[in-house]
Design brief:
The complex is a heterodimer of chains A (about 500) and B (about 350). Chain A has about 500 residues and is an alpha/beta fold. Chain A has three domains: about 1-235, Rossmann fold, CATH 3.40.50; about 255-325 and about 415-425 and about 445-495, 3-Layer(aba) Sandwich (Rossmann fold); about 345-410, no CATH class. Chain A is built from 18 helices and 25 strands. Chain B has a single domain (about 30-335), classed as ABC transporter involved in vitamin B12 uptake, BtuC. The chains are: A alpha/beta (about 500), B mainly alpha (about 350).
């Protein structure tokens, strides 16, 4: 029996076709995994199921009857709960209040707290979360918050539960707990859609797996009939290692050195260095503090202590404008919100960091702006209609190149890049990797913060690993191994390659 | 020339087309609109409104809001006439010039103060300028003692001729205030399109966090934006005082809403990120034309208010309407695409 079925779903955003004729059928009581690279359309599809997005065309059938899911509450009333990648909890309320916020027990507008906490306690016992119902969410760790999200979904007694990257912030033990929960739910006859890009989990937990690629449906298989290689080749279609070959470079002088960076409760005792021509990865789980570390180096956020030394001279980088002046470039992880200036033209997007240098008598020289645009677009193979095109209409990969070009235009010596290929297709991914290694070959020192281990392993000369705000690993390219990095990232091991400069 | 036209986005000139259609309709249906005088007086009033809208275009493009401008106009006008009362008889032309400079300086200070509240004290612009709306209006009553001032009664006859020229006079067949508006509009457009400040204004309107990463000093830019609002309101006040020939502390009440509406009607989205001074001004002239048209048809003043309110509400709903239309367009294209794919698939099969 089919629990939920999607037929011919189309969904596009400006510049991107997110879903292009996707159909999928999920059997009742199965754990159905949905896999695909970043940008494959998994999350978009789940958000359509969850009522967060409207589809452009297509139909959804639940238990064989067509239905329209117009809103989150609409999805819930159809028996669909979604656990999203981003945490959506209210930090200053208790666990119990968060879980039952849309369905508080009580009468006449008054909340029956005894009943509320009792309900929550039962749920917590069922899912074995170790905390009190009255604990404030703000006091919980990231992984505990994730568990609260899961309880919230379970509390609705939905028949279909969608989990979007539920393990992104969990360590191995917690992943096991999650598996137990999934087994329990499955035994109760619930249907589970499980999204993850960690292949091991797919094989551990799912009955069937559907693969999406670049917004298109690739196929559905029984998990037991697949092995890892077969699944990967379905996912990538093209093998990225054929598109991009690592170019070894010999690191030169130290450009950036940080010593004992510290921010209370976020990171402490962080020291490392970066040399000319070196691409260094920073791996770690969600919430480990690595974004905060690099943002404090760039002057975006404050820190409590530590020194930043650029080419042998200590610098006080109070703000991004100082960082730009001192030769640090920064590319954000959130292209849509803090990367592009959506409604501005591509020309205005590329020049915004260096307007002073492009001005004469206070007026921006359009001819110099155009030169800048042409020089970067031709050398970085960017596609656009004309210089007055708004950047929001470009594809994700092209937008990313423009943001990279903007950082480079200010003549940086150090480049900090967060999630360099998040949400862009495989071809553009390979191009970004080649651009990075080309920059390194010319002597740029590059820090790549990435949640995708294969990415770090394919572009980086060495990689740092961060766990709970501390560096637990410094691994040279030859010794990089997905398991080793994960062990360091979950605090189960510290590993420092011999002979590697940290 | 070709390049110049290429730069104009004709799809965003809706308000200009609306203005032309309105003029044609009125020309066809009402005798008053077959006389050049009515257009001259529309331009005269529209220019004053337009000048006030220039600064507001920056403000809204940066995703901010200034509600205090009507109170600011009243305060500036009262200070202006108070200074004229003191200086014009004793210091003559120099006195008038000094009054003018003082008002301009004060307008910059009042605007910068709004900016300071928003940028440095982190008060949301909506609230901060609501506060100064009250403060500036109250100051206007204090400065004037609550009484209106008639410029004709405080300056000499020759001096009054000068005010008449600015307020009601013409140059090359068009009102003086129109020419001043043109100078202001070109200045504003150059600032918006060609300077760091203009780019930073749009950048902040698009994304504050991306602006921060790009090293933009956000606080300073905000202060400059509100200062610009003040400066253009200053120019508008001086023209308005000359046009009316008087000041009073209760004047221009509700004008902020009209100015904000012209900017929005001109296509600058309340959600920020883009803006055009040219279309803001076209919208000012449009609004003044609507009022003139209703007067010409003898519509009673309460009914006029209803029409004005509806137009303003329409202006504010444009974004919603546009988004809905855009959504439908995307959807219908997607459906078409889906059908085409299916058709070609069945052809192959």
């Amino acid at each position: 029996m089919i629990a939920i079925e999607a037929k011919n779903i189309y969904k596009s955003f400006p510049g991107i076709k997110a879903l292009d004729d996707v159909s999928i059928a999920v059997e009742k009581g199965e754990v159905h995994a949905i896999v695909g690279e970043n940008g494959a359309g998994k999350s978009t599809l789940m958000k359509i199921f969850g009522g967060l997005y409207d589809m452009d065309s297509g139909s959804i059938l639940i238990n064989g009857t067509p239905c329209e899911i117009k809103s989150i509450s609409g999805a819930l009333s159809h028996g669909i709960s979604v656990i999203y990648q981003e945490l959506n909890l209210m930090p200053s309320l208790t666990i119990a209040e968060n879980i039952f916020v849309s369905d508080l027990p009580g009468s006449l507008g008054q909340v029956n707290y005894r009943k509320l906490n009792q309900q929550t306690r039962e749920l917590m016992e069922r899912l074995s979360l170790n905390a009190k119902p009255t604990d404030l969410v703000s006091t919980l760790s990231v992984s505990q918050r994730q568990m609260v999200e899961i309880m919230k979904a379970v509390s609705h007694n939905s028949e279909i539960i969608i989990m979007d990257e539920p393990t992104a912030a969990l360590n191995n033990q917690e992943v096991d707990t999650l598996y137990n929960i999934i087994h329990k739910l499955k035994a109760e006859g619930k249907t589970i859609l499980y999204i993850s890009h960690r292949l091991r989990e797919i094989f551990d937990i799912s009955d069937r797996v559907t693969v999406l690629r670049d917004g298109r449906y690739v196929g559905t298989r029984l998990t037991s009939e697949l092995d890892e290689n077969a699944l990967v080749s379905m996912m990538v279609g093209r093998d990225i290692s054929q598109l991009y070959k690592y170019q070894p470079t010999q690191p030169g002088e130290t450009v950036l050195e940080v010593q004992n960076l510290e921010k209370e409760g976020v990171f402490s005792d962080v020291s490392f260095s970066l040399r000319e021509g070196e691409i260094v990865g920073v791996a770690g789980l969600m919430g480990c503090g690595r974004e905060e570390i690099v943002k404090s180096i760039y002057g975006l956020t404050r820190r409590d202590g530590g020194r930043v030394i650029l080419q042998g001279v200590e610098k006080d980088i109070k703000s991004p404008s100082v960082a730009i002046k001192e030769g640090i470039g920064f590319v954000t992880e959130d292209r849509k919100d803090s990367g592009i200036f959506a409604l501005m033209t591509i020309r205005e997007n590329i020049s915004v960091n260096i307007l002073r240098a492009l001005s004469r008598w206070g007026l921006i020289r359009t001819d110099m702006e155009d030169e800048l645009l042409v020089s970067y677009t031709s050398s970085m193979n960017m596609k656009y209609a004309d210089e007055m095109q708004r950047i929001m209409f470009l594809s994700g990969g092209n937008q990313q190149k423009f943001i990279l070009a903007r950082a480079l235009a200010s003549g940086c010596k150090v480049l900090i890049m967060l999630e360099p290929t998040r949400g862009i297709d495989v071809g553009a991914k390979a191009e970004i990797y080649s651009l990075l290694s080309g920059l390194a070959a010319k002597g740029m020192a590059i820090l790549v913060i990435s949640s995708e281990l294969p990415e770090i392993m394919s572009v980086c000369y060495r990689s740092l690993v961060v766990f709970q705000g501390q560096i637990t690993g410094n691994i040279l390219r030859d010794e990089m191994d997905e398991n080793l990095i994960m062990r360091c990232a979950t605090g189960n091991e510290t590993y420092f390659s011999k002979g590697a400069q940290i | 020339m070709k390049k110049f036209f290429k730069k104009i986005n004709f799809r965003e000139l809706g308000i200009l087309y609306a203005l032309i259609i309105l003029w044609v309709l009125l020309f066809a249906t009402n005798r008053t609109f077959r006389d050049a005088d009515i257009y001259i007086s529309i331009l005269r009033e529209g220019s004053i409104l337009g000048i006030c809208g220039i600064g507001m275009t920056f403000c809204i493009a940066s995703r901010h809001f200034d509600q205090s401008i009507a109170s600011m106009m009243a305060l500036l006008a009262c200070v202006y006439t108070a200074l004229l009362t003191k200086l014009a008889p004793s210091a003559g032309g120099a006195g008038i010039f000094i009054s003018f400079l003082c008002v301009m300086a004060l307008s910059v200070v009042l605007g910068a103060f709004n900016g300071f509240l928003v940028a440095k004290l982190r008060i949301p612009a909506f609230i901060a300028t609501l506060g100064t709306l009250y403060v500036y209006r109250a100051l206007a009553y204090i400065v004037s003692g609550g009484d209106p001032v008639i410029i004709n009664q405080i300056v000499s006859k020759e001096q009054y001729g000068f005010f008449r020229t600015i307020g009601m006079g013409s140059f090359l067949g068009l009102p003086v205030s129109f020419w001043i508006m043109l100078i202001c509009a070109v200045t504003g457009t150059v600032i918006l399109r060609k300077t760091k400040l203009g780019r930073h204004t749009l950048a902040i309107g698009n994304s504050v966090s991306a602006s921060r990463i790009s090293g933009i000093n956000i606080d300073r830019t905000k202060i400059y934006i509100f200062t610009l609002v003040g400066a253009f309101v200053g120019v508008g006040t001086i023209l308005n005082a000359a046009f009316l020939g008087s000041s009073n502390p209760g004047m221009s009440a509700g004008y902020e809403f009209v100015v904000i509406s012209t900017v929005v009607l001109g296509g600058t989205a309340l959600s920020g990120g883009k803006g055009s001074i040219f279309t803001s001004i076209a919208a000012s002239i449009f609004l003044v034309t609507v009022t003139a048209g209703m007067n010409a048809f003898g519509m009673d003043s309460f009914a006029q208010r209803v029409v004005q309110g509806v137009i303003l509400l329409f202006a504010f709903s444009i974004n919603g309407i546009r988004a809905a239309m855009e959504n439908r367009r995307v959807k219908s294209e997607a459906t078409k695409h889906a059908k085409a794919t299916k058709a070609s698939a069945s052809d192959n099969g």
